[in-house]
Amino acid sequence: MARRFTDKRLVIASHNKGKVREIEELLAPFGIEVISAGVLGLPEPDETGTTFEANAELKALAAATAAKLPALADDSGLVVHALDGDPGIYSARWAGPTKDFGLAMRKVEDALAAKQASDRGAHFVACLTLAWPDGHMETFRGEVHGTLVWPPRGAKGFGYDPMFLPEGESRTFGEIEPATKHGMSHRARAFEQLVAACFR
Fold first, then answer.
1. With contact defined as beta carbons under 8 Å apart, do 125 and 55 qualify?
2. Relative to the CA of 57, which of 71, 77, 121, 140 has its CA 20 to 30 Å away?
């Protein structure tokens, strides 16, 4: 049985403004006061895990412990089938120290070209971990599958969104309105599980 969330304040354990904004919008119906780790000045822990789940858990626990409040962390990334799962858990690192996702998308495209890959299949993964200061954690995983397009299209998303075309769609995540994306994204799918387990 998952632990229910009964607090009024929640730390979003991320310094990524796009990710924080998306999670804030998902949490809006619950009337919870949301504070980002960046606003609180919390350090970003080293992501030493080898899975999305492990990295989400270490980030959530670090923020919950430091802030003495429940914390929600997300670890997400793009898994490219022809690249043996890269960039995967290293998706943010491919963008370099300046978080240049134009550069990251170009690296993905160059890697596919170098392999002469005909398979452009990919999926996004998001793992959400809700952690409490006493160390208790609940973790949920969501995925959305699609293909990669080039050149990137749209400026509405963030990260690798402009090159990701979800299954059954004619628009990339970079072209889809955020409200529509919230209903179908990897993060939304993980969030549905989190809500069902901890917020109902």
1. no
2. 121
Distances in Å between the Cα of 112 and the Cα atoms of 33, 91, 150, 153, 187 are 43, 15, 11, 18, 25
Helical axes 186-194 vs 17-27, angle rounded to 10°: 40
Per the domain annotation, does 62 fall within a domain?
A: yes
What pLDDT, in 10s, does the model give residues 23-60? 888 888 888 889 999 899 998 888 899 999 999 999 99
Secondary structure letter of residue 31 according to DSSP: T
Total domain count, the chain: 1
Residues known to be catalytic: 75
Query: How far apart are alpha carbons 110 and 164 in whole angstroms?
Result: 16
The mean pLDDT of 62-90, rounded to a whole number, is 96
Q: Is residue 114 part of a domain?
A: yes
The partner residues of 198 in beta bridges, in order of sequence, read none
What global pTM score does this model have?
Answer: 0.91
β-bridge partners, 166: 146
Q: Read off the amino acid at residue 175.
A: E
In this predicted model, which residue has the larger pLDDT, 44 or 76? 76
CATH at residue 20: 3.90.950.10
Task: Provide the b/e sequence for 83-112 (b: ≥16 CB within 10 Å).
Answer: bebbbbbebbebbeeeeebeebbbbbbebb
Domain that holds residue 79: 9-199
Domain presence at residue 26: yes
